[in-house]
Amino acid sequence: MEKSTGKIDLARMIDHTLLKPEAKPEDIKRLCQEGIKYEFASICVNPFYVKLASEELKESKVKVCSVSGFPLGANRSELKAKEAELGCRDGASEIDMVINIGALKSGNHSLVEEEIKLILKTINQGRILKVILETSLLTSEEKIIGAKIVKECGAHFVKTSTGFGPAGATVEDVVLLRKTLGENFGVKASGGIRDYRKALELIQAGANRIGTSAGVKIIEEYLKAI
Fold it and tell me: Which entry of 50, 114, 156, 189 is 20 to 30 Å from 44 by CA?
């Protein structure tokens, strides 16, 4: 790896994630301590653990990210909005929501748009909304349409995947999303990112945020390489 890669503050681009259903409080506390140690952008946890994570991170610069409509995106819009609202109330400053994938695929773009706008209104200004497309379930045309809807609604990031779908982030999808959204919009690559080389490939393809449960491994490998 060339020394020039050291110019990337990789840790500050990582959402250090634990969304497994079997996660215990001690696992969340460890995740938060890792977040503080490595100075990740955020730690991402399920709604139940937002309050605990917020308490653990209250003296740090690491943000708390939570999820809405996760992982299927098939909840009613009102429930997604309430989930986001409660997450923010408990201390989350970033919300990763899953779109209604079936609505996008069936051409019901107005539902997708209304849902994103509802959640944006619910979480209020100053918080970041990332919208998960679950790209492995979409055609290229659907990815483009979905990304454009997200941007036009005023959200802050398009995210590739939940990590629970058939496949995760690919370089090809990130390139497509970046081309569709332009230079300044957020693109979060997530799902199946387990080493620093893959993370750097996705960043070079256009991602400016990485979601991974392997954040510690990635950073330790990266620091040795540079």
Answer: 114
For the four alpha carbons of 17, 23, 29 and 33, in that order, the dihedral sign comes to negative
The contacts of residue 99 (CB under 8 Å, 6+ apart) are 69, 73, 112, 115, 116, 131, 132, 133, 134, 146, 150
List pLDDT tens digits, range 128-171.
999 999 999 999 999 999 999 999 999 999 999 999 999 999 99
SS3 126: coil
Residue 5 near residue 200 (C-beta atoms within 8 A): yes
* Most distant CA atoms of the chain, gap in Å: 49
User: What is the residue whose two structure tokens read 């819009």?
Assistant: 77
d(CA 11, CA 218): 9
The verdict on pTM exceeding 0.90 is: yes
Query: What phi and psi values does residue 19 have, to the nearest 5 degrees?
Result: -120, 15
CB 187 within 8 A of CB 178: yes
- The domain 3-225 is placed in CATH, from the list 3.40.250.10, 3.30.530.20, 3.30.450.30, 3.20.20.70, at 3.20.20.70
Q: What is the DSSP letter of 64?
A: E
Catalytic residues: 96, 159, 188
Report the SS3 class of residue 17: strand
CA distance 152 to 155: 8
* Domain ranges, ordered by start, for the chain: 3-225
Are 202 and 168 in contact by the 8 Å Cβ rule? The answer is: no
